[in-house]
Amino acid sequence: MKEKKMKRVLFAPGFACTSEIWSGLSIGGIEPLYVRWESSLETVSVARAALENDVVESEPDVYVGHSLGGLLLLELLIAEKIPSRPTLIIDAFLDDPADMFKNYVWEDDKLRGTVVRMLDAQRPLFVPLRRSIGEWTRSGWPEAAIETGAHFVYGGRGGTEEEVLEALMWPQQARKQITILPKTSHFLMMEAPKETSTLIELLLGK
């Protein structure tokens, strides 16, 4: 009997994040492909090209992108630089985020400390890229990103689902592509790894 091939899942992290952010996920029967940001990536365009190369070389079956990683995946999908695949975008904002979204972790002080230490260690390596992100413009958003068919998940930040959806300011018809995880924030995959794993399993058809 032919052995069933494991599906490849590409994980693209947010700015100045390491693969540590995915460590709590539990998804059986996959081959995880962890994108690593290199300090030589000094502009958004260079980072986007590096991610495109990662996708072309690894041929993943599913894309998962957090924050910056999610936005870059969306740009590549919009431009048809990478094949269309089931995609989960985690807490990445298609427009400037409302004030309620500007936090890392909702209630877990220990986890917040872990996140802050990671970012403090990594950010000095990416000063030029951070400057480039500040100058980054995306035309045709959010509609173009929504039309990729990606599924989006956002932390609830203590608000109701309706409050979060209103703050996102998405077109009404696109809200079916959004999941809100209560009592989580920007690093929701670390705060709610079980729920995040379930969303990825749905993309895998499990």
What are the main properties of this structure?
alpha/beta, 206 residues, 14% strand, 8 helices
Strand tally is 6
- The overall pLDDT average reads 92
Helix segment tally: 8
- Pairing-aware structural class of the strands and helices? alpha/beta
| Helix-residue proportion | 25-40%
Query: What's the order of the H and E elements?
Result: EEHEHEHHHEHEHH
Beta fraction: 5-15%
Uncertain ranges? none
Can you summarize the main beta sheet?
Answer: 6 strands, parallel
Report the radius of gyration as a whole number of Å. Answer: 16 Å
The best one-word shape is globular
Biggest β-sheet: strands ordered side by side in the sheet:
2-1-3-4-5-6
What distance lies between the first and last C-alpha atoms, to the nearest angstrom?
Answer: 21 Å
Please give a structural write-up.
The chain has 206 residues and is an alpha/beta fold. The protein is 37% helix and 14% strand. It is built from eight helices and six strands, in the order E-E-H-E-H-E-H-H-H-E-H-E-H-H. The chain has helices spanning 44-58, 68-78, 109-122, 127-134, 143-146, 161-168, 188-191, 193-204, and strands at residues 7-12, 30-34, 62-66, 87-90, 151-155, 178-181. The chain has a six-stranded parallel β-sheet, with helices on both faces. Strand 5 (151-155), helix 6 (161-168) and strand 6 (178-181) form a beta-alpha-beta unit. It is globular and about 40 Å long. The two termini are 21 Å apart.
